[in-house]
Design brief:
It is a single chain. The chain has 72 residues and is an alpha+beta fold. The protein has a domain of 46 residues. The protein contains 1 helix and 3 strands, in the order βββα. Strands 1-2-3 form a 3-stranded antiparallel beta sheet, covered by helices on one side. A hairpin with a 4-residue loop joins strand 1 and strand 2.
Amino acid sequence: MTYTVIYERGPSSWGAYVPDLPGVISVGESQAEVAKLIQEAIEFHLDGLREEGLPIPLPASFAGAIQIDTAA
């Protein structure tokens, strides 16, 4: 499965979250670090759901980009 991950750069760190898995978040010093940590967080969360016999949420979110002309 492929889950959408939203990455956000802050003043001194990076954050990431998964819209389809509420509460699955991560913070790191670089985009590469936060990408590794969010993958681990997703895997940990899904393992916990399996152990509890709960359903695995199917990915439903996607990210898009909209270009805005700021000269107007």
